[in-house]
Amino acid sequence: MKKRRISLVLGSGGARGYAHIGVIEELEKAGFEIVSVSGASMGALIGGLYAAGRLDAYRDWALALQPLDVAGLLDLAWDRRGVMSGTKVFGMLGEMLGERNIEDLPIRYTAVASDLNRGKEVWFQDGDLLTAIRASIAIPSVFTPVEIDGLLLVDGGVLNPLPVAPTMSDRSDLTIAVSLYGAELDASEEVPRVEERYDSLIERMASLAKSAIKERLNKKESVHLFSILDRTFDTMQQSLTQYRLGGYPPDMVIEIPRSVCETFDFHKAEQVIGVGREAAKKALERIGK
Questions:
Q1: Per-residue pLDDT tens over the stretch 127-139
Q2: How far is CA 73 from CA 83, 102, 273, in A?
Q3: Beta-carbon count within 10 A of 118 CB
Q4: Cβ-based neighbours of 222, under 8 Å, separated by 6 or more
Q5: Under a CB-based contact definition with an 8 Å cutoff, are residues 114 and 155 in contact?
Q6: Distance separating alpha carbons of residues 112 and 127, to the nearest angstrom
Q7: Over the stretch 52-63, which tens digit does the pLDDT of each residue have?
Q8: Largest separation between any pair of C-alpha atoms in the chain
Q9: What is the spatial distance between Cα 273 and Cα 25, in angstroms, rounded to a whole number?
Q10: What is d(CA 251, CA 245) in angstroms, rounded to the nearest whole number?
Q11: 109 with 102: CB under 8 angstroms?
Q12: C-alpha distance from residue 149 to each of 115, 152, 153, 243 (Å)
């Protein structure tokens, strides 16, 4: 029996993007052939790793992450354009991916970033894969932006959290989009939490970063910087996702509950991947019916 060919659209949403891994695993298990991937932010990262054949290696690395490991990856940039440089994270990704150009990948791939200078989307469909991913996940004010040929590039989710449009010309049987801004989890579906003493570790690291910034700028605000950025960005992306889906509706949307974890909970890979698997299974049941 011929495999059904799908175009896969992976949305932005920080650590919730681990759910994309579970979705991909279930789609492959069900016999689908993913012929193209389009992604923004964490969706661009997971999609790029998948297109390069390195998703399994990344999954194993993410599953082994402990809260202290995540904290160790938060490298301060001392740059007015962003709190973190991302040097450690992208050093690891560079070792994992090697030098790869998008046009040489075995499946079609698009990473979407946002150009702040022009207020427009930028689609990476050729050129260096790691640069494309780096530009697409540069959360404003958190990661320093990427500058290329006069473009000031930040997170693709700023303008398009769920980029379906790049897949419109694909020769595939279905377009499936994975949104990381679904409805809240039911009480019966709550994801198990890690030990409570770890839950606030990332917040403590963020607080240290905030203190350094306060000292540098000589301000006295007691507002939690990352919490405000997290909530603001999430709210904006949730609204934009619905708007974008109205303009470019895919054949199916798999929704991952927004409450599955916080944006920077990168030590919760196992739980979030599991949620992705379950969401994909339910979606596949609907396709079967």
A1: 999 999 999 998 8
A2: 13, 26, 21
A3: 11
A4: none
A5: yes
A6: 13
A7: 999 999 999 999
A8: 66
A9: 9
A10: 11
A11: yes
A12: 11, 9, 10, 30
